[in-house]
Structure formats: structure tokens, C-alpha cells
Amino acid sequence: MRNAVKRSNTGDPECNPFLDSQWVLTSVGFLAENTTRSAQAKAAGWDVMVVDEAHHLEWSPDSAGPAYEMVRDLAETTESLLLLTATPQQLGPEGHFARLQLLDPKRYADLQQYREETHHYEAVADVVESLTAGDAVDERLGEIVFGRKRLELRVADFHAGKSAAREQLIADLLDGFGVGRVMFRNTRSRLGGFPQRETRLISVTDKVPWLIDLLEKLGDEKVLVITQTRELAEEILEQLRETTGAVGAVFHEDLTLLQRDRNAAFFAEPDGARFLVCSEIGSEGRNFQFARHLVLFDLPGDVDLLEQRIGRLDRIGQRGTIQVHVPYLPGTGEEIHMRWLEEGLDAFRASPPGAAEIQRELALDLEEAIGEREGIEELIEKTQACRKRISERLARGQDRLLERSSHRPERSAWLIEKIRAWDEDTSFEDFLLRLFEFSGLHIEELEKRRYFLLPGNLKSDAFPALPPDGMSVTFDRQRALEREQEAFLTWDHPMVRGALDLMLGSAAGNACFGVWDSPGEKTILLESWVVIECVAPSRLHIERFLPQTPLRIIVDHLGRDLSEDPAFAKAPLRRGDPGSLLKNQKVKQVILPKLLEKTRDLGVHQSQAIIQFALSQMRAELTEEISRLKNLAEVNDHIKPEEITTLQEGESELAIIIQNARVRLDAVRLIWKSPIS
């Protein structure tokens, strides 16, 4: 993106740099501050816009920040919008509403109405929890479902004791109420798998000597140090290098992106930097869960920013207990701030719900306590009461419904097992390495399941996603989580998909010849792979119902279908020269054309059952979904009429496309079955 902007600045002033690429990565701040570039971005037109760290989009009922307004304007002309944040409470309840308004401005137009709806969700959440726990039926259930046909039927089935009726009723209650259709929110307590934290609060007179001593005590362990400013980060690094001789690195906003990547990678290597000193920019986006020691050299003013700092280490994949080291100067405002975070919020050991809201409510009290160096005990007591009140409120109502609809372990368990099986499948690794070798890559094995790839002698200049200076890759998911600089190769990785497309789009390997030495008569066989395929717009996701499906067909020169004959499953073929066989004009002009014609006929015949099954599967799934949405629309006004219409149109379009699926001959092998003499 930077290069595109630079070319635009030095060349044609009317050039739109956003038209140079299909994928663009840029900062929200850059667009918010530059009206020309934001207008060009909007004019370029996008299929999807993803906004990371969406809690930075400030909004209030009276005004909106420039970043929020820019995203809102761009979202108006973008088909799909995805907002990501790990701290959704940073802007309080209004923040939830503001993000929902970006997703659906017509539905979320009134903050007061939204607040009133959340109160209703509390009763629904209570009912769902009593049903989940198997307790007596909450008396409010009848009131909630009254007049809503689908839910009334579910309740009737439940009271009748029908199998799985309880689970179906819970699912429909979650589906029918709340914002779970447009918003997902998961919490540590529901997901699990996160590490424990231990806090080390240390009173010091000088932080740098203390840090030097800490590094000596920790031996070879990795240490992440975060402070607020670039200047302080560089100063700390210099003093540590001069005093300890230890190898360290720095990470701050004035470094280029490449330099930051290299320093982060150097810190990640087992024999690399012992410590990494970051400015506040290191609080977001980078993950260092291979380390377990975090030094908060100073404290951020924002409590959610503190959580983001700790979150660099506190992630799924962290194998140890995180040690949060907090040095502070006694008798200063820093000690007051530290005690408020520790004793009032318990913010070092846990992620306090509604922390930003608590901070806003007590901002003046905290400022006064820090400024006057007194009143800390009263502030802590007031903070604890405020935290309890807000936590209890957040534990009720919409958050409970949202979390339940976002995380349903019984549905995700099978997917997790699939992913684990894929991760352990070494046949994929073997296949991919052979594919890369075929493509002309130079492959250097670093260690088990780790490789370094270089362009080597590539057969095509179109080989994707490989930098000229090479890249490190791994098939180990855990290592990829710990080492962001290493690409994790799966079937969905752009380089893997691109390499497959290049191979499948070439003529290589789609025709060959083999000799089968076997007793019996001389026989000419044609082994073919035909593919059932549909040409459809990507928005329809046709692969859900009819992915490209290969069929193996074997016919002999007499026109017999031998595809199911077990003798051909693993025939011991050897290389041979087809020249002498193809010199026979009858073979070339009569037999081979008939074999190909027979193969096509068999492919078309065998494809019919597969096509009909895909058609019936599609109709069953979409008909059920359309019926479900029609019923839910009576309950949940998050479901828009256009959503149902889109599904109905999609069903009709899919039916036509699936019925018109065709068979394509993809690869053939001519086999000469020669009697053993």
C-alpha cells in the first residue's frame, strides 16, 4: 500500500492507489486523516472490509470520532464488514451499540431502544440458564414465547418429553433473541485453555538496576519489557546492553515494518534476543506466548491497554504461568495507580469485566488520589463496590445470550477433532513437499516439520506468495502460534492453493502410459479421471453441496467397464514406450476414440446420482433455513426480509447451476496389458 501511495504522489495525481491491488492493508488513522485517500478508498469499491482493534472507533450519542466516521462511510459502499476486538467493553455499552450500528445502521438507529431491549434479554437469559441446568421450568417461559408459533411448538415438545426437545428449545431461544446473528463475543471463562497469571509487585528506587538484576536471576528465560514511549524503550535497551552484555532488541513505531518483523523474529528464536523492549505499539497485534515474563516498566493510563499489554503473553498456546513484574516508585502517584489496579480492579491477575466503564466512572476520584497522594483506601473500597455492581450487571442479560450463541462446544467439538486430525496427517506434508519440488522450489529442511523455501528454479513466474529471499514454513500449529514469522502451511494457505492451481492448470501429469505384465490376453486399457464440476459465483459457495468431485473410470478395448474390478486397484505398472502401440492406425483412429467416448458416457451416467444427491441436499438445507428464518422473523427483528429473499434467490440459482453440472476429462493413462511370456 505504501509503495502504491508513493507512486501516486510522484506520478499521476489522479491515480487511485487502491486500484493497484485486490488486497490492501492500511491504517484507519491514515485514512481518517487524509480525505483524499479516504475518498479514493471508497471509490475503489470493496467486497470485504476488516477492521482490527475496532474498540478504537470512538463514538458517543453526541458525536463520532473521525476514525468511526471514516469506517462508517466506507462501510456504506462495502458488501461485507467484519469488526474485530479483544476488548469489547473498552467503550462501554455504547461501544456495543456503535459497532452494531456500523453493521446494520437501519436496525440499530436508536441507543435508548437498544438499552431497553437489553433489559428484556435478562429474562430470556435466566430461562435459558435454568433449562441448561435442568432446573424447574422458569415461570417466565410462557410469557416469553407467547404468540410466537415456532417457540410455542418447541415448548409443547419440551413439556411432552420428546427426545432432544430441551436442546432444541434452548437453541431456538438463543436464535430468536439478542444480537447473536450479527455479533460474536467469547470470554476467557467460557472458552478456557488460558494460562494463569502471577503478579510480582516490586518497590524500587531505580527501575533499571532492578531490571538488570531480574535478567541475571532469570538466566536464559525470555523477557518482554513494555513502556509507553519510544525514547524510554531505546534508553532502557542501551543501558541493558552496556551493563549486562545480554543480547536484546527493541520494538517501536519509528522502526520500519520490516525492522519490527525482524526484531520480533529475533526475539522468538531460542538462541536470539534474551529480551525485547517495546514502546506502547507493542501492546497490540504482536504475540509472544513463547515467553512468560512480562515487565511493565510503567503503567498505561488506560486499564484496557494494560490488559492488551498482558495479552501479548496471555494467549492460547502459552505453556507456562505468566509472571507479570510491576516495579513502582514508592510514595508516588505511580504507587497509587498500581494499588488501584491491583487491589481495586485485580487487573493484573484477571481481565475485569467492564474495566473501561469502571475507569470512566471513577476517573476524577483516581486523578484526585494520584495528584494528592492520599485517599487510596477509600478509592479502593469504592472501586471494589463499583466493580461488583458492573460485573453483576454484565453477567445478566444480553452478554449471557451473546456468549452462549457465540460459543457452543457441542457444535465445535467435531470441528476441533477434524483440525487435530489434519494437523497430525503427515501425508499432507509429504504431498506438499513433492508439489513444491515439482514446481521448482528449493527446499531446505531445518528440523522436524520445519523447512526453508527458496524460489530455486521455478517453472512458473506466477508461483504465489513466496518472497524472493525465501521464507520459513512449518506444519506444526503450536510452533506457528509461537513463531509468527513462520508460515503455517495448510490446505488454505495462499501458497498451497496457488501451487495446486498452477499444477492443475498445466498439462503436466494429465497423460501417461504404463505396461502391465500379467497372464491372459493382450488388452488395451484406458484409465481416466473425470471431474464433476460447476461454474458458479463464489458468493454461492457451491462447494458446500457439489465440490469438484473426481471419478475413476477404467474401460478396455472391448468397451467393458472395469472400474470396480479389484484387480485394477493396484496393478503393478512399469514404464514403457507407447510409440509402437500408437503406430497401429486402428488403435490410434478407432480404439482410442471409442475408449474416450465410452469414458465420457460412463462419467455422465455416474455423475447423475451425485448431482441429484447434491441437489436434494441443497434444497433440504436451504428450505429448512428459509423456514427457520421466516419463523424467527416473527420473534427477532434482527432478521431482515432481504435476508430471506437472498436465500430464496440463492436456492433457485443453485438449483439451476447444480443441474447443469458437467463432466470434464481431467487425466488419462493408456495401459498395455501384455501377457507374461
Question: How would you describe this protein?
Answer:
- The chain is α/β, with parallel strands linked by helices.
- It folds into five domains: 2-104, no CATH class; 113-176, no CATH class; 188-393 and 400-406, P-loop containing nucleotide triphosphate hydrolases (Rossmann fold); 411-504, Dihydrodipicolinate Reductase, domain 2 (2-Layer Sandwich); 511-674, no CATH class.
- The chain contains 26 helices and 17 strands.
- The strands form four sheets. Strands 3-8-7-4-6-5 form a six-stranded parallel sheet, with helices on both faces. The chain has a five-stranded mixed sheet with strand order 15-14-17-13-16, with helices on one face. A four-stranded mixed sheet has the order 9-10-11-12.
- Mean pLDDT is 86; it is low at 1-8.
